[in-house]
Write a structure and sequence with these properties.
The protein contains 12 helices and 15 strands. The chain has helices at about 10-25, 40-45, 55-65, 110-125, 135-145, 190-200, 215-220, 240-250, 265-270, 285-290, 300-310, 325-330; strands spanning about 1-5, 30-35, 50-55, 75, 90-95, 130-135, 155, 170-180, 205-210, 230-235, 250-255, 275-280, 290, 295, 320. It has a 7-stranded parallel beta sheet with strand order 3-2-1-4-5-6-7. α6 (about 190-200) links the parallel β8 and β9 (about 205-210). α6 (about 190-200) packs across α11.
Amino acid sequence: MNLIDAVYIHEAGGKELLEIIIEKINKDNSYFLLDSRLKLSKKTFNSINYKLISPSEKKRKIFYYKNSKNYNKILCLSNVPPPLKINSIVYIYFHNDLLLTTKKSNQSLKNRILYFLKKRYIIYNNQSNYIWLVQTNLIKKNLIKYIVKENNKIEVLPIFRDHIKEVKIIKKPNTYLCVSNHNKHKNIFNLLLAFKLYSLNNSIPIDLNLTIDKNYFDKNLANIIPVGGSVNVYNYGQLEKKELNKLYRESEFYIYPSLKESFGITLIEAVMNKCKIICSDLEYSHQVVSPSIVFDPYSVKSIYSAILKSTSDITHSNSSLRIKNKIDKFIELFK
């Protein structure tokens, strides 16, 4: 029996990763330790053997003390090794670059300290026989630099859905989509300032679709772009996959200003839905996609120039994937 430890996984890319694994893995040979905040469909919960616990190392450690010897292999999905030394085969799927370094990510002092302490905890619990799994060569390079031991094995195994339902894709001209939250490193403030510049200086109407938490957006961001200008802003909040895919299919451009990403799953989803990618000219972007237009995410004027280019230059190239899905190889590890 294998243990899939998904404590701390409950939203965004981590949840997407977990759902893909649940779909593909041998459920008869797997037991899932899940975060009590996680929301899955009743059908999905009924298809697996699982235990829900509150997201804390104390609860996690109690579970391991009682049960860890029952498992041949353990997969820790949320970056953190087991809370006690394990002799079984242990895999840690690492997918949070902020736990490696917060440099140039706009984090507050409090968050920088918290990330530093979490990193020290991960280093303390790592063992030389543990195997680390990552999504890109960039994260592998940084993991070697900041966390893993010399004897740790690291495999690059990106996981994503590379098959989408065959539907007719009809793009709305001059429509932009950014699927993101409001965390500091997502750089949404600079994005909105760039669209504000466009609204103040251009008459061609464009639409900007967002998925920011509605309460946060209404309180902190809604007034940045003036109403009645050339930019129409639509914030949908967190969407179900079906509704989100509809936005991808309708949007001509996918614009992504993030300062730091471990993978950038939404970049991949956008390419698969035939969006043209306008994104940060940073290494994480170029690891996964060949974008149509890039910009300096630290410069509002650079983002604004990229928006202008997208509206005025009809010759920009289509975007494409640089990365291959390794889900089958990943699942092989747990047979």
